[in-house]
Structures are given as C-alpha cells and as structure tokens.
Amino acid sequence: MSQTQNIPWKRISVEAVAIVASILLAFAIDAWWQERIEDDREREILIALLDDFEKSKSSIEEGRDFHIAVQRSNKRLLESVLSDDVTLSNLEVDRLISDLTWWDSQPRFFTGALNSLIYGGELSVIRDDALRQELADWPSEIQRTESLRSQDYDFFLNVILPYLRQNGSLLDISTIATAKPGSSDEESTLIDLDFVGKSDHSVMISTPEFQNILVQKYWIQDDMLLAFERAESLLNETISHIESRL
C-alpha cells in the first residue's frame, strides 16, 4: 500500500495532460498550416483565373467590334441593291465585299489557368461550391462559342470565295487598301501590285444569289454577336465571384 501511495500521481497526470495538449497543439498547428497552404494555393489559382477571364472579356469586346463592323458593311451592300437612295462607287462596293471576306480567326478565350485547374485535377482547390461549378461549366461554354465562330471560316471557304472566284474579280478586291473591319489598323493591300481595278461588281451584288449570300453572312454575324453577349455576361458573373473570394 505504501508503494502505491509513493507514486507521484499528480505529476504523472500533469505530464500526461501536457503530452496530450502538445499532441493536440501539434495537430492544430498542422491543420492550420495545411489550411494556410490551401488558402495560398486557392488564391494563386484565383488570381491566374481572374487575369485570364479579364483578358477574355477584352478579347470578346474586340471580337464584337469586328462582327458589328462586318455586319454594317453587309447591311450597306443590301441597302445599295434594295434602295434607289443608296448609290455606291465601284471602289466602295469592292471595299464592302472585302469586309465580307474576313473571318474572326483569333481565339477569344484565354484558358491556360482554367485548363490547368480542370485537367490538372485541382478543381477541388476552389472551395466555394457555386464558383467551382461555374468554372467546371466554362469548357462547354467556350466550345459552344468556338463552334459558332467556325461558321465564319466555313462561309469564307465554301460560300463567298467560290462565288467570287466564279463571278467576280479577286484581283480587284486584293489590291485595294483595306483594314480589318472594326479595328484601327492601318489600311494595306493584300497583294501589293500597282493595279487599277476595272471590274464592276454592281451587277453581281444585285443578283438574288449574292443577296442570299449577304443574308447568310448577316445571320452568322448575328449568331456571333448573341454568343459574345452571352459570354460577356457569364464572364462578368465569374469575374465578380472570383473577386469576392480574393
């Protein structure tokens, strides 16, 4: 009995509590550190995403200006063949036709950070459920817009180019000074030749077939403008959500 009484229970209890406390403290510090690492990683990713989405928004605005300018040229040609009040010179007609041969060849979305996040298996780093779902939905939204954008190139390659090759003068259109529609670029010629065009495309543009081509081109620009309007609205929402997390 005396041996049991000599055991320093109080000291042992204090030491045990201290050990347990130190273990719990170590777990707490480790958990805090892991959370700090996750916070830093999430913030790093969100900053990269924000940069890409803001660049995409700026690019979308540029693309919208392009399609509006092409649609304006398109409408001008339609007005010239439908109204006696609109008279265009041969040079003006060629310039307007030249605008129709442009297509939007520039990808409008910057996706480096988004692709790394999704295809790198790091989507779970984004801890806001709503934002994580938004980001997961973006690849399909981008694909939707890009598939519509491909209509413009298909139109050039398969519709207007064969028609102009058969019925117009590509040389006239290629040797007049023009700039990308909707841009502030300096005008230049596609082919640098000292050539004065002699073709009169006024008869060509008045044909029902060319008018149908103009209407098709107008539809494509309308599709793109609607797609860009939707994309810009979604970009604004995502940018706002990211900023609220930073």
What can you see in these coordinates?
- The protein is mainly alpha-helical and 246 residues long.
- It has one domain (2-245).
- It contains 8 helices and no strands.
- It has helices spanning 2-5, 9-82, 90-100, 112-119, 129-167, 170-174, 202-205, 208-245.
- The longest helix is centred in the N-terminal third of the chain and has 74 residues, at 9-82.
- The radius of gyration is 32 Å and the shape is rod-shaped.
- The relative contact order is 0.15.
Task: Name the features.
rod-shaped; 8 helices; 0% strand; single chain; 246 residues
Secondary structure: elements and pairs:
Layout: H1 2-5, H2 9-82, H3 90-100, H4 112-119, H5 129-167, H6 170-174, H7 202-205, H8 208-245
Biggest sheet details: none
* Total domain count: 1
What's the rounded overall pLDDT mean?
87
Order of helices and strands: HHHHHHHH
Shape: rod-shaped
Strand count: 0
Radius of gyration: 32 Å
- Which segments are poorly predicted (pLDDT under 50) over 5 or more consecutive residues? none
Q: State the share of residues found in helices, binned by percent.
A: over 70%
DSSP strand content:
under 5%
End-to-end span in angstroms? 66 Å
Strand pairing plus helix content: what structural class? mainly alpha
Number of helices: 8
